[in-house]
Sequence to fold (123 residues):
Amino acid sequence: MDRSEFEHIVVDCLENLPEFFKQNIDNVHFVVEDYPSNEQLQKVKAQSKYNLLGLYEGVPLKYRGIGYGMHPVLPDKITLFQKNIESITRDINQLKLKIREVLMHEIGHYFGMTEDEIRNAGY
Fold:
């Protein structure tokens, strides 16, 4: 699948997020890359670029102090890794479901949820 088709699915998933998420996500840049960079792999201590499906980079909402945003702040970043997601899906329906799942997982991190909390919530 080419990048624009994949990105179109991502945008569709974002537009169909639960209303709570859409109203409370602010200053987040959503990006699609083929694979994680070496820097991204080091951040999460991943050993292979082929295993990571998505990554949240930023300061989670629940950890932002009173001074957060008093000075210009770069947007948080959620990256989806297209080739890795495609490699574990068999058809367009699975791909759409996996993209939504990865987005919800990374958005959970944006809100400050731990891996266990995200898994317990079903993502």
In short: DSSP finds six helices and three strands in the chain. Strands lie at 28-33, 54-57, 76-81. The longest strand covers residues 28-33. Residues 10 and 100 are 8 Å apart (CA to CA).
